Amino acid sequence: MSYFDSFRKVESFTVQEFMRGDHHKSRKERKKEEKLVALTTATAISGGIAVQPWLFSMVNAAEAIPVGALGDGVKSRIVHSFDPLIDLLQNLSLPLAGVMVTVGGIFVMLGMKERGYSLLMQASIGYILLQLSPLFMDLLVSIGESI
């Protein structure tokens, strides 16, 4: 294999072609399918083909899933999948807030009071919000269940 064999012509695809899996087909095959679809559509429109009732009988009403129907197990797994991330953030918030408070205090001692107080306030608000994040998650879940 030579150096120049690794260079290929770049082809671009639309999102629809990629999602349908048409990107694996050659350009000729895609053009042939597009012509066939256009011909079929034109024939159906010009021929006045009506939709037959037997076409709708293929869908069984018992198979229909109600909108918003998620089992309790799925909801529980979704909610608890965020627990490790929330635990990590809560455990990191204390040391990080401690460093920020220390740096803020040093800024105040050095005469940069506005920057120091701003850092102290940001550290305290961030720490409180991170500690209350499980409460916010439970609140979002209860709002989602009520809708």
Automatic annotation (TrEMBL):
Taxonomic superkingdom: Bacteria
Transmembrane ranges, per UniProt, are 36-56, 92-112
Keyword check for Transmembrane helix, yes or no: yes
- Keywords assigned by UniProt? Membrane, Transmembrane, Transmembrane helix
Q: What is this protein called?
A: TrbC/VirB2 family protein
Species the sequence originates in = Geomicrobium sediminis
Q: What is the lineage of its organism?
A: Bacteria, Bacillati, Bacillota, Bacilli, Bacillales
